[in-house]
C-alpha cells in the first residue's frame, strides 16, 4: 500500500454505497466511513463530504417506470436529498451542513467565492459540509453531471490537499474488473496519460453515473492543481483502517507540483469560455513572452456571445493559448478590436479600462505546439 499524508480532504461517496439496493438509504457502508471522518477530525484534520445517492434514495417514493423522466428523477432527488442528509447526520454529534451546487454556481466568480467562504466558515465552526449537485433545479446546461467531477471542483474551491473517492471497486484496474476477472489493481499513478484513460469503462451499477471515466477526469483536474487523489473501495471497512494509518489501499494518483493560485485553478478548470478572441503576432508575443495584458489593439477577431466579465478563449493561429476574463462584451470588442486603448472612450462612450483582458485574469494554456 502506498503511504500518503493529508490535512484537508474531500471524501466522495458514490450512490452504490448510500443505496446498495438502488432504492432508499442504507447505513450498511456508512458506519466505517463515518468513523474514519470522526477520528480524522479528532486529529485536527478537516473533512468535506461529497455525497451522491439522492436520486436512488428517493426512488421508491415516486411512481416511475424503469426509465424515469427528468422530472421524476428531480422529484426523487428532492425527497432523497433530505433522507440522505438525515442518514449521514445520525452518525455525528456535530452539525452536518447541506450544500447543493450547480455548475453555474462554480462558473460565476462571485458565487464561487461565496461557496468558498461558506465552506471555510463551516470548517472553522467544526461543521461537516455535505455537498451534492442541486439535482432538483439542474438541467443539462447548468449541470456538472456527475459527482466525481463535482468532488474535484469542491476540492479545488475548498483548497483541499486530498480527494478520496469511495466507490464499489478496489481502485483503478487495468480493465473493468466486473467484466474481466483477471484485471489487476494499479496501486499508484504518477500521471494520467492517454494509456491510463484508455483503461476506464462506464458505471458498474444501475445507480452509478460516469463509472471510471469521470473518476479519472476528477483525478486529473485535482492532480494538475496539486491535489492528490485516492480511489478506494468504500464497501470494505478495512480500507478505512488503512487510510487512518496513512496508507492507500486502492489507487493513489500523485499530485503534480502546483504553485498556481486559486484563481488560476478556477480559470483553468472551472469556468467555461463563452467566446474567443483571436490575436495578431504582436499580442501573442506580448502575452506569452512578456507577461503582458491583452489590449484591444492586438485582437483581430471576436467570436461568441459573451458579456463583460465572462471567460473567453484566447487564440493564436488556431490554437487556444490562454483563457481569461474579458472586461468588455463581444459587441464592445467588435467595435474596439485593432484600436489603440486611448480610443476606447471615444468609440464606446465609456471605458472599463485599458485592457481587454487584464494579466491577473488570464491563464496561459499551451504554447508548445506553436
Ligand atoms: N478500469 C476500471 N477499473 C475499475 N473499475 C472500472 C474500470 N472501468 C470501469 N469500471 C467500473 O466503474 C465502476 C465505478 O463507477 P460508478 O458505477 O460510477 O460508481 P460510483 O457510484 O461510486 O460513482 C465500477 O463498479 C467498475 O465496474
Ligand atoms: N447527484 C446524484 C448523483 C450523481 C452521481 O455522480 O452519482 P455517483 O456516480 O454514484 O457518484 C444523486 O445524488 O443522486
Automatic annotation (TrEMBL):
GO terms for biological process: L-proline biosynthetic process. Substrate binds at residues 52, 135, 147. Its main location: cytoplasm. It is found in: Cytoplasm. It is an enzyme of class 2 (transferase). It holds the Pfam family AA_kinase. Its EC number is 2.7.2.11. Residues 275-357 form the PUA domain. HAMAP family: ProB. NCBIfam families: proB. PANTHER family: GLUTAMATE 5-KINASE, ISOPENTENYL PHOSPHATE KINASE. This is Glutamate 5-kinase.
